[in-house]
Amino acid sequence: MPLIAKRNSSLGWIPWLLPALLFYLFFMAWPLLDTLRLSLYTGSAEIGRTFAGLGNFRALFTGKIYSLRFRGALTQTAIFFLIHMLVQNCLGIFFALLLSNDKMKGRTIYHTIIFLPVTLAILSAGFLWRLLLDPAISFPLSVGLDFLVKPWLGDGRTALLAVSLVSCWQWIGIPVMLYTAAFQGINEDYIEAANIEGANKAQIFWRIKLPLIKPVVGIVSIITFVNSLNAFDIVFSMTGVNGAPDYSTDLIGTLFYRLGFAGLEAGLDTGLGAAIATITFLILCIAVIPTLQLSKRRD
């Protein structure tokens, strides 16, 4: 009897886990598996589906119709990610270093100002910046910045950069928050010991603070990578679903929408959309899992 009672008590957590497990299976695991299944078919529910095997993947990588768009969207998504990594990490660490200084006055106000854009709706922020960057409205001209009056979103050479920087402006509050917490969590004994040894502020940052927050840098990198692959709203609100001009701001998210939902390329084909989602999932697994493992080792 005591053995049976002990076994029952050790399994008492299962009923508490079931609701979350069912929720995960129904809303996460099943859609993922069904997406993998749909990637092997062409067509849609309205016109009927036909088994195509790996035909959708061949069409994306080598087909005359879709391969150019897919490679362009993949390349521009990589550039979008790299801009975020450079701007958000550098500025995020810089702002966090300032905000983690206990002697700095008004830290709460500055932190609020930096984090405030995160609370804005993406579509609203994108549309606002679209108006600000419109040379017909010429907001920079009204504040004396004549050299900034140019068609930032109308020039294929600057459109992706403009969209990326707007996205960085909106989401930089999250890296700043994480880095600030990481800096504040560093044991002061390390800093005091470095000061006793005569280290200057630059040496303390590069040799003590930065190595200690590398796990957080890894987490921010993962969040940035996932959000870059899922980016859609900011492009949709600033340059349209086609990634204008001339697909120069087209990302994986907008291409997925056009093929899998709107049918704007060559008719609606949920199989192609599912194939793009599957490739995105594989890219995430290949990039995120090693990064998580490396972060755990550093931690």
Residues in β-strands, percent: under 5%
Task: State the order of secondary-structure elements, H for helix, E for strand.
Answer: HHEEHHHHHHHHHHHHH
Number of domain modules: 1
| Biggest β-sheet: strands ordered side by side in the sheet | 1-2
Oligomeric description of these chains:
single chain
Q: How much is the radius of gyration in Å?
A: 24 Å
CATH topology: MetI-like fold
The low-confidence parts are: none
Q: Structural class of the helix and strand makeup?
A: mainly alpha
Helix run count: 15
Taken from the alpha-carbon principal axes, the silhouette is globular
Tell me which CATH architecture applies here: Orthogonal Bundle
DSSP helix fraction: 55-70%
Give the overall average pLDDT: 85
- Please report the first level of CATH classification, the CATH class: Mainly Alpha
Please give the alpha-carbon distance between the first and last residues.
Answer: 44 Å
Give the biggest beta sheet.
2 strands, antiparallel
The total of beta strands comes to: 2
Account of the 3D structure:
- There is one protein chain.
- This protein has 299 residues and is mostly helical.
- The protein has helices at 2-10, 14-38, 55-62, 67-99, 107-115, 122-132, 139-142, 159-171, 173-184, 188-196, 201-212, 214-230, 233-238, 252-262, 270-298; strands spanning 41-44, 48-51.
- The longest helix is centred in the first third of the chain and has 33 residues, at 67-99.
- The protein is globular, with a radius of gyration of 24 Å.
- The model has no long low-confidence stretch (mean pLDDT 85).
